[in-house]
Amino acid sequence: MAKIAIALGGNALGNDPKSEKEAVLLPAKQIVKLIKKGHDVIIGHGNGPQVGVIYNAFNKANAVDSTIPLMPFAESVAMSEGYIGYHIEVALANELKNANINKNVICVLTQTLVDKDDKAFSNPTKPVGVTYKTLKEAIEMSDEGSKFVEIPTKGFRKVVPSPKPINFLSIETIKNLFYKKELVIVGGGGGIPTIVDENGNYRGVDGVIDKDYVMSKIADLVDADILVILTNVDNVFVNFNKPNQKCLGKVTVSELEKYIVEKQFSAGSMLPKVEAAINFVKSGKNKKAIIAKLENLSSAIDEKSGTIIMKG
Asked: In 65-134, which ranges are continuous DSSP H helix?
């Protein structure tokens, strides 16, 4: 049996608490199927729409009532980790109970360590929050230290960096829980971006860390055998949406690296998934990564669907 790390996309989890509670039922069923087969599973998830909802809600509330504070982005990430993790935790606990499996489900609020000198901090590119008509309004309505980009004909929007993950404050706890065969939810939304400041203290900062890079790193650190990145397409494709489109079934790292040089994968969607998969496969012997559709999780593990990535 295998140790499997799974990355769930935030966009697949709904846009509000009600739809999210329904959306998490499918991955919960799929994951418990794997547990029934004897696999050990650790789960990470995105927070794409959800963290924006939280951040925007505080901004809009502050505009109406100044006694309601503006919420720093790191705290917004923490809030999204908490409530998405809670929904996944409940769905998994119910599925385990229905399957008569005695296993605990634990959500670990994850602080992701990043380098304070990461080049991403000097070039923030990830837009978050609402669009303001003027820069003055954007500054007044955002938390201290925010940076903004002008969107032609629309206005100004806060942007945050996307630094690369280095490690995790709670990694030893995560390892211990996983090795005890508990079902662990970690790295929500890429985790809370955390630096070691000039005084040697940990401090949360603005940022969005790609959840696929994070789960690739966690999968390596817990010595998982398989990394599964679940998305909304059946496979990775080259020449996507062109007459000569090609579906990738089993593929080697060297083949994917060649396709990256050819710019076959979009930076905003498939490229981070492919790079995260490559990083994991390269991290040790006999490692395998899979990029597949959520509904096909079980068959992807059996190599009957999805894109299977091997060292070659």
From this structure: 73-98
Q: Which residues are within 8 A (CB) of 10 and not within 5 positions of it... i.e. 6 or more apart? A: 45, 46, 47, 48, 49, 50, 84, 189, 211
- Note the pTM of the prediction, 2 decimals: 0.92
Q: Are 62 and 25 in contact (CB under 8 A)?
A: no
For residue 41, the surrounding DSSP H or E stretch is strand 40-45
**31, 8 in Cβ contact below 8 A?**
no
Q: Collect all residues with Cβ–Cβ distance below 8 Å to 145 and sequence separation of at least 6.
A: 206
Q: How far apart are CA 257 and CA 251, in angstroms?
A: 11
The string of pLDDT tens digits covering residues 205-236 is 999 999 999 999 999 999 999 999 999 889 99
Closest CA to 231 of 287, 279, 271, 178: 271
Instruction: Name which residue leads in pLDDT, 102 or 13.
Output: 102
| Residue 2 to residue 32: CA distance in whole angstroms | 14
143 has a pLDDT exceeding 80: no
Residues acting as catalytic residues? 10-11, 126, 211, 273
Give the chain's length: 312
pLDDT digits (tens, 9 = 90+) for 3-47: 999 999 876 777 778 888 998 999 999 999 999 999 999 999 999
Distance CA 302, CA 211 (A): 24
| Count of beta carbons in the 10 Å neighbourhood of residue 235 | 19
**Alpha helices, DSSP H, located in 99-200:** 135-140, 171-179
Q: How far is 85 from 79, CA to CA, in rounded Å?
A: 10
For the beta carbon of residue 194, count every other beta carbon within 10 angstroms. 23
Tokens encoding 234:
């059946």
Q: Are strands 246-248 and 236-238 parallel, antiparallel or unpaired?
A: antiparallel
